[in-house]
TrEMBL record, chain A:
The keyword Amino-acid biosynthesis does not apply. The keyword Secreted does not apply. It comes from the Eukaryota. SUPFAM superfamilies: Ligand-binding domain in the NO signalling and Golgi transport. Belongs to the TRAPP small subunits family. BET3 subfamily. Keywords: Endoplasmic reticulum, ER-Golgi transport, Golgi apparatus, Transport. GO terms for cellular component: endoplasmic reticulum; Golgi apparatus; TRAPP complex. It is found in: Endoplasmic reticulum; Golgi apparatus, cis-Golgi network. May play a role in vesicular transport from endoplasmic reticulum to Golgi. This is Trafficking protein particle complex subunit.
UniProtKB/TrEMBL annotation, chain B:
Keywords: Endoplasmic reticulum, ER-Golgi transport, Golgi apparatus, Transport. PANTHER family: 41-2 PROTEIN ANTIGEN-RELATED, TRAFFICKING PROTEIN PARTICLE COMPLEX SUBUNIT 5. One of its GO terms (cellular component) is TRAPPI protein complex. It holds the Pfam family TRAPP. It comes from the Eukaryota. It is found in: Endoplasmic reticulum; Golgi apparatus, cis-Golgi network. Coiled coil: none annotated. InterPro entries: NO_sig/Golgi_transp_ligand-bd, TRAPP-I_su5, TRAPP_component. This is Trafficking protein particle complex subunit 5. The keyword Endoplasmic reticulum applies.
Length: 186, 178
């Protein structure tokens, strides 16, 4: 990564209230729960939706940050992901941590998580298995796949699970995709 | 208190005075997915509209108190005209960072009012030939929820005209005669 100033490095000034975003996402998840009723299915849907978003977000990201070039290793990818991508899209910088020994797996700690602001789950435990922030995992997977990085991305803890107050996402490098396959709508 | 209740409830936290902001692209991507999803799930355009408005209603109900609390010091409006003004000014300002453009009444029907907005942000990435799939239905849902919640029963719809979006508010008779 080179210089951080210059004409093309201005981050997008167009902003909207993040509460609107949080509430909108909440309404979406609610609708999914109403439509599918099954929590596992909702998780799957959220992942797919995130994946579709990620596919498009990577282009927006690279177009607005033309100074970012190919990452030399997975550690650099992690840095770019947390310090640039998350910063640009969600205005936060999650902590990169818990690397494994071979440096192909790490965790992102998202605290505070803008998606889970105002979110509270009923006590009856029906939504214990709901991965509320799964959409972020999907988006990471979708975005990295477009730059030929295949990763596994899972929500390790989320605010509705146990007594966790932060969101942890575990990202594992799988392979470099050799031939990029065109991605369809679905 | 048992161990399950140790986690602080979101009601115990204070509402942040300052509002955060988020990149419009992120929001646009999310809305795009919501439009695709709603379209896939619905049989026709009416169904689609009501699904989008349903999202808006969910948001509107929650925004109402938040905006009262934050921008109006909990002062509430008791007249429907002022309530519409409140939406135009404060609610729109708090979510989109700018006021809606105009507030007008219909000249023939005393029950109908319009909140008008030129090029709403939410439609920014919507091609002109796809106005059927206008994301502004979500805004209409927000307006409807806020008015209904504050006891001014009404139905909302939208009309597109030349870059303008008219949020049509048709009040129940009881509201206007008050």
């Amino acid at each position: 990564m080179s210089k951080t100033s210059g004409k093309y490095n201005v981050t997008d000034p167009r902003k909207i209230s993040y509460e609107l975003f949080t509430l909108t996402y909440g309404s979406f998840v609610m609708q999914l729960i109403k439509d599918y009723e099954d929590v596992d299915e909702v998780n799957k849907q959220l992942d797919t939706i995130g994946y579709n978003m990620g596919n498009r977000m990577i282009e927006d990201f690279l177009a607005r940050n033309p100074h970012i070039s190919r990452c030399s290793d997975f550690r650099e990818t992690a840095e770019v992901l947390s310090k640039q991508a998350f910063k640009m899209f969600l205005g936060i910088q999650p902590q990169v941590t818990n690397w494994n020994n071979s440096f192909d797996e790490f965790s992102l700690i998202i605290d505070p998580n803008p998606l889970t602001e105002f979110v509270e789950f009923p006590d009856h435990g029906k939504f214990e298995k709901l991965n509320y922030s799964q959409i972020i995992c999907g988006a990471i997977r979708g975005a990295l796949e477009m730059v030929q990085l295949k990763v596994e991305c899972n929500l390790k803890t989320d605010q509705n699970k146990g007594d966790s107050t932060y969101t942890e996402i575990r990202i594992k490098f799988v392979e470099i995709i050799q031939d990029a396959i065109p991605v369809g709508e679905d | 208190m048992d161990s399950e209740n140790v986690k602080p409830s979101c009601l115990d936290k204070s509402i942040p005075k300052q509002r955060g902001e988020i990149n419009l692209s992120t929001y646009a991507f999310l809305i795009a997915e919501m439009v695709i999803y709603s379209n896939k799930q619905s049989n026709d355009i009416t169904d689609f509209k009501s699904r989008m408005a349903e999202f808006g209603r969910f948001i509107g109900v929650r925004l109402l108190d938040l905006t009262y609390y934050r921008d109006r010091n909990n002062k509430r409006e008791v007249k429907f005209l002022e309530q519409m003004n409140f939406i135009k000014k404060y609610v729109w300002k708090s979510i989109y960072g700018k006021e809606a453009d105009k507030l007008e009444r219909d000249y023939s029907d005393p029950l109908i009012y319009y909140i008008m907005e030129k090029d709403p942000i939410i439609n920014k990435f919507l091609p002109n030939d796809r106005l059927n799939f206008s994301c502004a239905y979500l805004n209409a849902g927000i307006i409807e929820a806020i008015l209904n919640e504050s006891n001014f029963p009404c139905k909302t719809d939208i009309i597109h005209s030349d870059g303008w979006v008219y949020y049509t508010i048709k009040f129940d008779k009881s509201v206007v005669s008050k």
